[in-house]
Amino acid sequence: MSPSRDAGFALTAFFYVFLFSLACADPVPDEVPAAASSSPGSVAAQPPSSRPFITDEAQKLYEKYQSAVYQIRVIDLASGKKSVIGSGFQFTNDGAIATNFHVISDAVHEPKRFKVELLRYDGVVGTVDIKAIDVVHDLAILQTRDRYDSFLELGSSEFPKGTRIFSMGNPHDLGMSIVEGTYNGLLEKTLYRKIHFSGSLNGGMSGGPAMDYEGRVIGVNVSTYGNQLSFLVPVEYLKELYARVKYPAPFDNWSNAIERQLLANQLDLIDTLLKTSWEKQTMGDARVPGEMTELFKCWGDSKDNSEELYTWTSLRCSSQDDIFVSSDLRTGQVIYNYLWIKSKGLNTFRFYNLYEHWFSQPFDFDNAKKDDVKNFQCEAGFVRISGENWKVMLCARQYKSFPQLYDINLNIASAEHYRKGLLADLVALGVTKDKALQLTRKFMGAIEWKK
Which CATH number fits domain 31-248: 3.40.50.2300, 3.30.300.20, 2.40.10.120, 1.10.10.60? Predict the structure, then answer.
């Protein structure tokens, strides 16, 4: 049963009242001198005629393609030192270079404070310009001002699971390296498609290429969970971004470009949730949305301690991905939680105090800093859901650089029972006002109190 029309109208009204009033790059240690040799290792030091016959695939790829893979540096202009390092690779003969957005994000947000440069395998330093970004898929395209002939060919991300692939990059500023691992297919049940790479990516390898036996790029290094669990951006997203570079739309500034990308992404995500029929899960005397789509995962917990005078059961659900916008701002995620509490001996007054305490606990918003978002504005009231009265508090805060986007937090609590109750909260990061309202109304309407 959905909330009553009067309750929905009231919530809509106070929501708009306060809303309209609202006006893996890596830090690096000190400079380490770069190697100036023209080729790495003892093999390069030998005359060509005396080199051993190479049979190892990784060594072949390293020797053949190292000149097309660079260290990407973000330079702090005040100190002249690098503040962030990552990796990148040239993929056209006219100097187009791929890397991750998160590697060069500081230079995107503060171009007067930072610049981007590359370091070649032979010690040559070059200046590059930022040509395009894809914040949703964590990609960027740079353009070198100098001509370097070596480049990698872009391939496909489709391979049988178990195929050996090879990743290159500059881990922890230690020099160019190559890592052999296993292709384990595209991740399932994820908002943003990534390749599961069973290999050891390390800090500083972000933005480097992952290649097949022939040296064709299948993906771009992006992140790792450690223990041979790493992820790559499929090369198809790089091809799409490069197509926009060749046929660019009118450009105003990077902030507007980022906001447009975030807007398009959240529209797709929220529309998918609104069109989907959500599965239900029992929580005490209620039925609530469980895993809304296969993009979400839920975890449960409970406690029934003989020394306590109440029991509780919790369910925590969230989408599995977020979007890196800056080192202080991550967005694009939906989270919702439930808590069923039942008294085993508390009187009405003590149960109410406990219930109110749990309701008043704020969600820990650690996705943004004060320079990125305005303060939360909140409204509270009562609505009728599934024949029950519920207390509702709805809060929102606006993004400063992307004013069409908000973080929202909906908290609701059943209010008709003296010694039992259901608490629920819904968090959506980086959504528009209208989509936030549509999502919160569907969420409340999907809760059913069992008769």
Answer: 2.40.10.120
